[in-house]
Design goal:
mainly beta; Jelly Rolls; four-stranded antiparallel beta sheet
């Protein structure tokens, strides 16, 4: 029994560890604005960030090739970074950043604005996977 106890403690500790990825989807509300809180506890841990969405195909404009996402990252300290990237309209999931390493530990806010929001867009999701 004494030999089994350390093994059980190790298994229990492994079961309590943080998951290797985080995923959340926000349904469209017509505003085109989406906000996600991402916690980065370790400034040495790299992760991949992907966006995913669903667009009703019958409503998708035939000429829509991509649509802009205005992305704003706000650090726990209040500092921010913004950029515009383009989401291919025929893709369900798109890698946004590969090997991202946060400069600060804590909860970061990832805000995305889609203007104009494509017809038939059901919402936007984000996936953060540790490497």
């Amino acid at each position: 029994m004494r030999r089994l106890l350390p093994v059980l403690i190790l298994l229990l500790a492994a079961a309590c560890s943080r998951p290797g990825s985080y995923e959340v989807f926000k349904h469209a509300d017509g505003s085109g604005d989406y906000s996600f809180d991402l916690e980065f506890a370790d400034t040495l841990q790299a992760c991949d960030i992907s966006f995913y969405t669903a667009i009703d195909r019958p409503l998708l404009q035939d000429t829509l090739v991509s649509f802009p996402l205005k992305v704003v990252w706000r650090a726990p300290s209040g500092r921010y970074f913004s950029e515009t990237v383009y989401y291919p309209a025929d893709s369900v999931r798109v890698r946004y950043r590969s090997g991202l390493v946060p400069s600060e530990a804590g909860v970061w806010t990832l805000s995305v604005s889609i203007d104009p929001e494509p017809r038939g867009l059901r919402g936007l999701g984000v996936i953060c996977s540790e490497r």
